[in-house]
Amino acid sequence: MALELSEIRQLITQIDRRLLKLLSERHRLAFDVVRSKEITQKALRDAEREQQLLQDLVQFAENENYQLEPQYITSIFQKIIEDSVLTQQVYLQNKLNEQRSQNLHIAFLGKRGSYSNLAARNYAGRYQKPFVEVGCQSFEQVFEKVKNGEADVGVLPLENTTSGAINEVYDLLQHTDLSLVGELAYPIKHCVLVNGTTDLSQIDTLYSHPQVIQQCSQFIHSLERVHIEYCESSSHAMQLVSSLDKPNIAALGNEDGGKLYGLTMLKSNIANQENNLTRFIVVSREPQEVSPQIHTKTLLLMTTPQQAGSLVDALLVFKKYQINMTKLESRPIYGKPWEEMFYLEIEANIHHPDTQKALEELKAYSHYLKILGCYPSEIVKPVNL
Fold first, then answer.
1. Per-residue b/e over 177-199, b at no fewer than 16 CB within 10 Å?
2. What letter would DSSP give residue 149?
3. 21 is in an annotated binding site
4. Which of 181, 275, 318, 328 is most buried, most CB within 10 Å of its CB?
């Protein structure tokens, strides 16, 4: 006899709750793992071990005839591995750096519901610290709030997989004494948000931040006679559309933020690129020490002589010491036409002897060299089968 739909749903709920219990148990085991690695000083990640684990799980499911696709199994367990790695990483960082007992004040662009706000909440949640939100009207104000002590850290977008580098943030990094102490990636899921019920054909004005407009350009071009209004942030756009309460206007932002302002999602998945991610950096007045067991990055600011091959000579230093460079970004130097400043991101800890030797050699090939920060990466790249 076939089960009723309500009975099937009850069974699913029971299974889901058992899964949650097992996930919680596995999560707690991450602390036992990191305590063991803390003694042996092993690196947090073991790519060969992770790859073997995924292969064994796929093989086990096949032997048991579980009828689960290998891609489905690997995608789930890659997320579980990511949680384990980040849990262990936070444990080591909290022990290495003195943690304040009071609330963490976090500065970010916009109001509640902006992508920067959601990323800030994600950062605070990972470190399991109570936090106070400090909304700002500009990227420059985020730096100012941290510099003058109104915020402990600032969370700023640095680059997006669709629109590329956030040049304004890069330019502000040229002139700051703050240190980078962290990074994280946050998924960007743009949608059309309206007040009440309306039809997409009625919309003639869109409000949002310039970066959001750029990332949704293909969708916007598909609309007819739509006027663009730029706002300080996507959260300002959502607040404005909510207060104006007109059927012909909409905000481009995220669904979770829209709910905070009583807006309804009219259309989702409107970004040019489906897998749309923004990488955020975390800045603080004081640098943090990073455990040598953690995957670490360092961001450098450098200028080179205006001679042929000078930049290549500088980059060869990293090859010599087998240091991987993950980012090279150039920006103009104000007041010096046709001269550029380079941002170099390397996968290295500045306290490692080889990194120190490389940086010392790099000085010979540069006019100016500054370490903007050494920080743990919270972007866990999955291993593949």
1. ebbbbbbbbbebbbbbbbbeebe
2. T
3. no
4. 181
Task: Please tell me whether 126 is known to bind a ligand.
Answer: no
Same domain, 90 and 148: no
Domain that holds residue 61: 13-97
Is 188 in contact with 182 (CB distance < 8 Å)?
Answer: no
Higher pLDDT, 319 or 126: 319
- Cα dihedral 253, 146, 352, 124, rounded to 10, equals -50
Listed in sequence order, the DSSP H helices in the chain are: 5-40, 47-63, 70-96, 115-126, 139-147, 167-173, 210-215, 217-222, 234-244, 255-260, 310-320, 353-362
* Eight-state DSSP code of residue 313: H
Do residues 286 and 179 touch, judged by C-beta distance below 8 A?
yes
| Confidence grade of residue 339 (pLDDT, cut at 50, 70, 90) | confident
Give every strand in the sheet of 227-230, ordered side by side: 227-230, 205-208, 249-253, 191-194, 264-268
Render pLDDT for 163-190 as a digit per residue (tens, 0 to 9): 788 999 999 998 899 999 999 999 889 9
Q: Is 37 annotated as a binding residue?
A: yes
Helix (H, G, I), strand (E, B), or coil: what is residue 67? coil
**Which residue(s) pair with 377 in the sheet?**
183
172, 250: one domain: no
- Whether 10 has a binding-site annotation, put simply, is no
Instruction: Please classify residue 355 by burial: count the beta carbons closer than 10 Å to its beta carbon, then call 0-12 exposed, 13-18 middle and 19+ buried.
Output: buried
9 annotated to a ligand binding site: yes
Number of structural domains in the chain: 4
Specify whether 91 is located in the same domain as 140: no
**Known binder of ligand: residue 88?**
yes
Please give the biggest Cα pair distance in the chain: 82
